[in-house]
Design goal:
The complex is a heterodimer of chains A (about 170) and B (about 260). Chain A is built from three helices and six strands, in the order βαββββαβα. Chain A is α+β, with helices and mostly antiparallel strands and about 170 residues long. In chain A, strands 2, 3, 4 and 5 form a four-stranded antiparallel sheet that branches. The relative contact order of chain A is 0.17. By secondary structure, chain B is of the alpha+beta class. Chain B has a single domain (about 5-250), classed as T-fold, CATH 3.10.520. In chain B, about 35% of the residues lie in helices and about 25% in strands. In chain B, strands 1-2-3-4-7-8-9-10 form an eight-stranded antiparallel sheet. A two-stranded antiparallel ribbon of chain B has the order 5-6. Classes of the chains: A alpha+beta (about 170), B alpha+beta (about 260). β6 of chain A pairs parallel with β5 of chain B, so a sheet runs across the interface.
């Protein structure tokens, strides 16, 4: 069990060890999967690991953690009310990024990476770390549980711009 | 950066501005301002960010900070903003017991570890001066808040988990400013000024306090301090810290407020 120490500043203050519930902070709607991101981890090409999806909604399952022999049957396509749009390819400091968003009833229900190209392996691994955080920010901000995320940097600009362009394409204000 | 927020919350302006090599996002409640006034305030804040970027970019060879680094600009001749930042850098160096030291960076003076937080704070100041009472400005992960959220007693800011990309490490309640640095980042500001090393046993450091500039610098200092990070955290006056060590152990000073229920 993980725990957090509480550091007191004065020698007289009692030491408080606070145990907090762990792991509830995983991304909501994880059933929708990290389509683009998982593909990044399984790809073997060093620099271009883009995942181009069809223009309709698609629910991907993990290719890294699911044993195909015991895989659940393919998920049925979502209701026809869902629409998706591809965002622009956005340049950022270390490469190019594009996302695809899925919107249903005026809310974004998924964001996946449609394209990610980086010049070097290190940038790619950084992007792999940051992108899910940005995705979380997009999805969870809508539910108003949190007002922002501290510590997400680098690919933020390209990610947000691509999300915005996809929204513009859908006519979402 | 959450443009679709606007459809849910009437009177809230959402804007994302690419500047300073990152994205600065605004959530601004227009409050008693008109929509036009609030939009003008956000535009002014963005203009200010671009002005500050022009002064402090180490990538632009003719920026004042580049000229200062190259010895072409004397300390007495720097712009007012840079004089302020130099003062804050000294304050941060002192508070951090030397673990944050822009003067010890390879390539010369580099205040990058403090400027992003400071500029984000300046953007919030522009909003406040324009009459805005409720806002969040997030400068690439350095977050400054104003007022209170309409539906809660404090702003809830998720802290990026250093190595579980699908998770937040925790959610903190914040009433002023919070910054997070991690050894997952890169850049000269994470070099140990004492020995030039880049590795740290601190995977992530978060600092909460009144000045976002100092939060930013102190978070960096706590990462580069490595083994001495917890001791440095305890020594900070007026600033609270939350550390995640490379072995997964977490610790926080007494004043860190973890949000109840964390992320639902």
């Amino acid at each position: 069990m993980n725990h957090r120490d509480r550091w007191s500043r004065g020698p007289a203050a009692p030491k408080v060890v606070r145990r907090l519930r762990r792991a509830p902070a995983v991304v909501a709607a994880s059933a929708a999967g990290f389509a683009g991101v998982l593909a990044l981890h399984t790809g073997s090409r060093p620099s271009i690991l883009g995942v181009s999806g069809p223009s309709t909604v698609r629910v991907d399952t993990s290719t890294t953690t699911t044993d195909p022999r015991h895989a659940p049957p393919p998920t049925a396509p979502p209701a026809a009310a869902a629409t998706s749009a591809l965002g622009n390819n956005e340049q950022y400091g270390y490469g190019v990024l594009a996302v695809r968003i899925t919107v249903r009833a005026g809310r974004i229900t998924n964001v996946s990476v449609a394209n990610l190209q980086t010049a070097e392996q290190y940038s790619q691994s950084l992007a792999q770390q940051v992108i899910p955080v940005l995705r979380h920010e997009v999805l969870s901000a809508q539910s108003a549980h949190i007002n922002g995320i501290s510590g997400a940097t680098y690919t933020s600009e390209a990610y947000a711009s691509s999300v915005q362009s996809a929204l513009d394409r859908l006519g979402t204000k | 950066m959450i443009a679709w927020y606007a459809s849910d919350l009437a009177g809230v302006i959402i804007h994302a501005e690419p500047v300073m090599g990152t994205m600065v996002s605004f959530q601004v409640d227009q409050g008693s301002c008109t929509a036009r006034e609030a939009a003008a305030a956000v535009a002014s804040a963005c203009a200010r960010l671009h002005e500050l970027d022009a002064i402090f970019s180490t990538f632009k060879p003719d920026s004042p900070v580049s000229q200062f680094r190259a010895g072409q600009l004397r300390v007495d001749d720097v712009p007012r903003e840079m004089a302020l930042v130099l003062g804050l850098c000294e304050e941060a160096r002192e508070l951090s017991l030397g673990w944050f030291d822009p003067w010890a960076m390879p390539g010369g003076f580099d205040p990058t570890g403090l400027v992003k937080g400071w500029a984000t704070e300046q953007a919030l100041t522009v909003l406040r001066t324009a009459g805005i009472e409720t806002a969040v400005v997030n400068g690439g992960g350095d977050v400054a808040v104003l007022g209170r959220p309409p539906d809660a007693r404090a702003w809830r800011i998720g802290i990026r988990h250093p190595w579980k990309p699908e998770a937040l490490a925790c959610v903190l309640e914040v009433d002023c400013a919070v910054a997070t640095s991690g050894s997952y980042e890169r850049g000269p500001h994470l070099i140990n000024p004492r020995n030039g090393a880049m590795l740290s046993c601190i995977a992530s450091a978060t600092v909460v306090g009144s000045s976002l500039a100092l939060c930013d610098a102190l978070a960096t200092a706590l990462v580069v301090a490595g083994d001495e990070g917890p001791e440095l955290a305890r020594s900070l006056t007026g600033y609270e810290a939350y550390l995640i060590q490379a072995d997964g152990k977490e610790g926080a000073t007494e004043g860190i407020a973890f949000a109840s229920g964390e992320v639902a």
